[in-house]
Amino acid sequence: MLKIKAPQTVYFQGNDHAVLLLHSFTGTTRDMKLIGDALAEADFSYMIPAYPGHGQPIETFIQHSIMDWWKVVEEAYL
To answer: Who contacts 61 (Cβ-Cβ below 8 Å, separation ≥6)?
Structure first.
């Protein structure tokens, strides 16, 4: 059986200017990589939170709700 590695939250520590990057519905942190690379080159700090179930098999994805994903966004922002 094929094992899919769950996407992980990505964080880059640059200067005091920070950006919170949010990928789209059913997307993953990898979708924001080019933007993150550009921010890092400009020495911005950034975070790309991984939403539970995203980038995983549909059986895992449907175990989570929009409230789970919103909680991740709120925690990343604070």
So the answer is: 26, 53, 54
Q: Do 46 and 18 touch, CB atoms closer than 8 A?
A: yes
pTM value is 0.88
Tokens 């995983």 -> residue = 56
Q: What would the DSSP string read from start to end of 13-78?
A: --SS-EEE--PPTT--GGGGHHHHHHHHHTT-EEEEPPPTTTTS-HHHHTT--HHHHHHHHHHHH-
Triad 65, 58, 9: Cα angle to 5°: 65
Are 49 and 42 within 8 A, CB to CB? no
d(CA 35, CA 41) in angstroms, rounded, equals: 10
* pLDDT tens for each residue of 11-64: 999 999 999 999 998 899 999 999 999 999 999 999 999 999 999 999 999 999
